[in-house]
Amino acid sequence: MKALTRLAVPVLAAATALGLTATGASAAAVTIRRDGPTGAPYSGAFRFDNLAPLSLRTSILGINVTAQCDTVTLEGTLVSDGSSVSLNSAVVDDCSSSIGGSAEVTFENLPYDQATVEYAPVSGGRDGTLTFTDSRLRIRADISVLGISATCYYGLGSSITSLTFDLFNPDNPDRPSPTVDEAQGAVDNASLTRLSGSSSICPTTGTASVHGEIKGETTAGSGVFDQTLYATS
């Protein structure tokens, strides 16, 4: 696997649809806890492992192309009140193009340390949000198909200023993968603005989707991510 810590998204950051606000949601202070709703507050390292492929949809000369990556691991740190979250490293691997050829997706300019968690439950949906507002957030997509190669950079800019992951508690029946009893995070068709790349090849907006489980460390500093996490108000 390739550790992607070279340069400044998301996706993944990630970390919910970018810039989307669910109907009926109201944000509030959050406490991130161990195990369940009455567990001790948790501050420390976390890891996101995808449960579905990361997809980044773009186009080459008007042909729609999706770069799909089967392996995504994001690691960072958080504090229990959600006031400070940092995405420090990302591994994205096993990528392919929807129309053949090759594809790579790279998170650049890590770490992204301008991010917060809020308790924002939605009936029939999420329990909270993780929102990145770091202007360094940048994703590089390298795609080569039909004899054409393109490098496109997407992230946050003047028109798209945040990337939000929806967060789901382990007992939320509406979590993206209901057979996995862990906290989960998801972005669904999140829009990212083009930061650079040929305007004739790279469209103005790219779209990213991914979801996965989120765990902490039972023993701080162990590098073993086996701690169930839970968000409450």
Describe the overall structure.
Strands 1, 2, 3, 4, 5, 6, 7, 8, 9, 10, 11, 12, 13 and 14 form a 14-stranded antiparallel sheet that branches. With 233 residues, this protein is mostly beta strands. It has one domain (31-226). The chain has strands at 31-34, 44-50, 54-60, 63-78, 85-97, 102-108, 115-119, 128-132, 138-145, 148-155, 163-168, 183-196, 205-216, 227-232. The termini are far apart. It has no helices and 14 strands. Residues 1-24 have low confidence and may be disordered.
Structure class = mainly beta
Task: Indicate the low-confidence ranges by residue numbers.
Answer: 1-24
- The average pLDDT value, as a whole number, equals 86
Indicate how many domains the architecture comprises: 1
Broad shape: elongated
Number of strands: 14
Report the sheet-strand fraction: over 45%
User: How much helicity do the residues have?
Assistant: under 10%
Q: What's the tally of helices?
A: 0
- What does the main sheet amount to? 14 strands, antiparallel
Order of helices and strands: EEEEEEEEEEEEEE
List keywords for this structure.
disordered N terminus; 14 strands; 14-stranded antiparallel beta sheet; mainly beta; single chain; elongated; 233 residues
